[in-house]
Amino acid sequence: MLELIDVTKQYPGQPVPALESIRLKVKPGEFVALLGPSGAGKSTFIRCINGLVAPTAGQVIWNGHDVTAAGKETIGRIRREMGMIFQHFHLIGRLDGLTNVIIGCFHSLSLWRAVTGWFPKEVRQEAVQALKRVGLLEVMHRRADGLSGGQQQRVAIARVLMQKPRLLLGDEPVASLDPVASREIMDLLREIHEQEQMTTILNLHDVETAKTYATRIIGIRQGRIVFDGLPQELGSKEVERIYKQPL
Ligand SMILES: Nc1ncnc2c1ncn2[C@@H]1O[C@H](COP(=O)(O)OP(=O)(O)OP(=O)(O)O)[C@@H](O)[C@H]1O
Q: Locate the ABC transporter domain: which residues (predicted)?
């Protein structure tokens, strides 16, 4: 269970807060899409959850642990339970697909193994399975920077699977992809969500994609929640409230 209690983020030098008193609960197994205009605070929202951004006020509670007050050790453990995928994939371009996937369980590997590139057989096998699961075994030995955007996002998803997270966060995971690749990635994320019952929170820019895949939609505007409901409850009036109408 994830709970945000009056989370506020004020970046230094900004006239208004990026997030203002966000209060909500996300139940295990939900598939949440965050919608909102550019600058609404969606990325900040996602990053406050895993502690990449520290809220100015309020608390983020993950399965009873206060992320906002967690020490180094606890935050490390919490982050391992939260996988994250990004718009620009965040792979290491000069490394091959398999090594990028193996990096997902970096925390359980000793530093010298990671540095020397020598990985235990069982870790390699697990990474091969993760690549197989995302339908991309053939890129195992290909450099990540030679792959298409859709392939790179699949490798990033396989890397997250190695981490065995309980929560998947996505910051615009399909924003850089063409419509076909975007649909394939969303189908894959839905499949993983269904098979693993993995709580999923994605920041998306497309209303139709959100309505097709999410079980719950949260609309953010100027750092505040202006819609929180089921996909079928999001009609044109609600979309207008999120994107157009003045607050
Ligand atoms: N590191 C930062 N320092 C200062 N201001 C920031 C920082 N990151 C974000 N902001 C500001 O906070 C507000 C919310 O930004 P955020 O990136 O969370 O919005 P967003 O909804 O994800 O936007 P987009 O869809 O354009 O990525 C914006 O006004 C942005 O300029």
A: 2-247
